[in-house]
Design goal:
alpha/beta; Immunoglobulin-like; TIM Barrel; 3 domains; eight-stranded parallel β-sheet; six-stranded antiparallel β-sheet; globular
Length: about 500
């Protein structure tokens, strides 16, 4: 068999921003995860991209690539993973125009907002579902079906399994070769005395675990859903948060090399980074440097907080990932001059902790307030779903949604998508008044959110010259009523209900 016979590629042609993969057989002696290298160089008339590969088990090494242009590409593979008598393996493929649902990776746009690489505006409306990829196959498929029929265009989830209330069982797969501790999973989360007996080889990732995750990343990519991948977190009984510097760096490189060629990947270095005392500030900076070095596509990157926010002024951080009250949105925008994604603003549900038992109306109210402040809020649902295997929550396991907020969030996303100029900002210091971020549209489109107030009528004034088409938006009943064209001092009759918004669209722009 010649050297060229050992090379396989997943396609002769692939969409622009699709995932192209080269597979080669290689050495298996010793530890292939650490002993050998594989590296690819991909060339087009408009770009040359270098990407490290990874060992995928069973003697197979892979390199992945995401083309940023249409047209012909050539590639060459080098490294110590094999001895090639005919020189480095090489080949070519064609990048074709992107499909209808393919707009490329998401980028920061207009300082505080987002757009796909083809400049299509992107308004992140995400949900949190930490451990869904670690559940049994049937439940994972149910989650995918729910997401496909939902309003969400982003989902946060973990690579490592999570041990926390309502989620105390072992995952479907583990990220390393070895075995977990044998323990009573009903023991309260805070009791760490039973977290003993783990036996992992942190130098040998388990390819099956990562294959499972990337399979779901690929399916979500086809649905147009971004994957906000949480690489580390504090809720662990298996020892993955205490692997040590050498093992951590191997893990980070393995994750980035496997996943960065998927256009829908975002990097979240941690969920609640400050609840991991094992990690120093230097550790987080080192992890960020690994992403910068190994991710050729510069995907969005953040660090999520459980208390004080991470210093998002660092140049490698693209946006603020924030847990806290939406009222801080304005200050965070001003402080960091970056988009603010409010990944945790409490969850709709009925569990006992205070962060998991607000009702749907309150979550939707927080969504509208965050939107009017120029931020991007995130959803989570923590209703208890009894099953034959114990209590299940969307927030940790996935499955079905039970709450009332999701369809109202879909309605809000439709409103956001109608925003001219690609995003909103807060106009008034105390009122919930939002206008387009772009100065070109600031006077032509205004949203006033009345929140919990329920007036029967309201006076509005912006200027004397502009005529506005006025719409009354019931954010809970999801209706839009045309209130006619008004100008100057406007006296608008309202329905005496909470959660009403009033939209003003310059009449000539309607």
């Amino acid at each position: 068999m010649s050297d060229k016979d050992l090379l396989k590629q997943n396609a002769e042609s692939i969409e622009r921003w699709g995932m192209f993969e080269v597979s080669l057989c290689g050495k298996t002696a010793g530890n292939p995860f650490t002993d050998y290298t594989i590296h690819g160089v991909f060339k087009h008339k408009n770009e040359t991209v270098e990407a490290d590969g990874f060992y995928d088990g069973d003697g197979v090494y892979k390199v992945r690539f995401m083309p940023s242009f249409e047209g012909e590409y050539t590639f060459e593979i080098t490294g110590s993973f094999a001895d090639f008598s005919d020189g480095p393996p090489s080949g070519s493929f064609t990048a074709t125009p992107p499909g209808e649902n393919n707009h490329g990776p998401v980028r920061v746009a207009n300082t505080y907002h987002f757009a796909y690489e083809d400049n299509t505006p992107y308004f992140p409306i995400g949900t949190t579902c930490y451990g869904w990829t670690h559940q049994d196959d049937a439940l994972c498929e149910e989650t995918l079906k729910t997401l496909k029929n939902s309003s969400f265009n982003k989902i946060r989830f973990c690579i490592f399994p999570k041990h926390y209330i309502y989620n105390l069982h072992d995952p479907k797969t583990f990220p390393y070769e070895g075995k977990p501790c044998v323990c009573d999973s009903s023991v309260p989360t805070e009791d760490t005395s039973f977290w003993k007996g783990n036996d992992w080889d942190f130098s040998r990732p388990n390819p099956a675990h990562f294959q499972r995750i990337e399979n779901y990343v690929a399916q979500l990519m086809e649905m147009g859903i971004e994957c906000d991948i949480i690489v580390m977190h504090p809720y662990d009984r298996w020892g993955f948060k205490n692997m040590g510097t050498k093992a951590d760096d191997l893990y980070w490189a393995y994750v980035v090399n496997r996943l960065s060629a998927y256009r829908n990947v975002w990097w979240s270095l941690a969920n609640e980074y400050n609840l991991m005392p094992e990690k120093s500030p230097e550790d987080w900076e080192r992890y960020g440097s690994i992403i910068c070095r190994l991710d050729p596509y510069k995907h969005l990157c953040s660090v999520h907080n459980g208390g004080p926010e991470y210093d998002a002024s660092k140049p490698w951080i693209s946006h603020v990932s924030y847990q806290g009250d939406v009222v801080h949105t304005n200050g965070l925008r001003e402080k960091y001059k970056k988009p603010v994604v409010l990944d945790e603003i409490c969850y709709e549900g009925n569990i006992w902790p205070g962060w998991g038992n607000i009702d749907g109306q309150e979550l939707v109210r927080r969504f509208w307030e965050a939107m009017c402040r120029g931020g991007y809020p995130g959803h989570g649902e923590t209703y208890i779903q009894p099953t034959q295997f114990g209590e299940r929550l969307w927030w940790s396991h996935g499955g079905k949604l039970l709450g009332e907020s999701e369809k109202r969030i879909r309605f809000l996303l439709e409103i956001m998508a109608q925003t001219p100029g690609g995003g909103l900002r807060h106009r008034e210091a105390w009122e919930r008044i939002a206008v387009p971020e772009s100065a070109d549209h600031a006077g032509s489109y205004i949203i006033v959110y009345l929140d919990i107030r329920q007036p029967a009528n309201y006076f509005f004034y912006f200027d004397n010259e502009t005529a506005y088409r006025v719409e009354i938006i019931d954010t809970w009943d999801m209706t839009i009523e045309d209130a006619g064209v008004h100008k100057g001092k406007m006296h608008i009759k309202l329905p005496s209900k909470r959660y009403i918004a009033v939209r003003f669209i310059k009449a000539s722009d309607k």
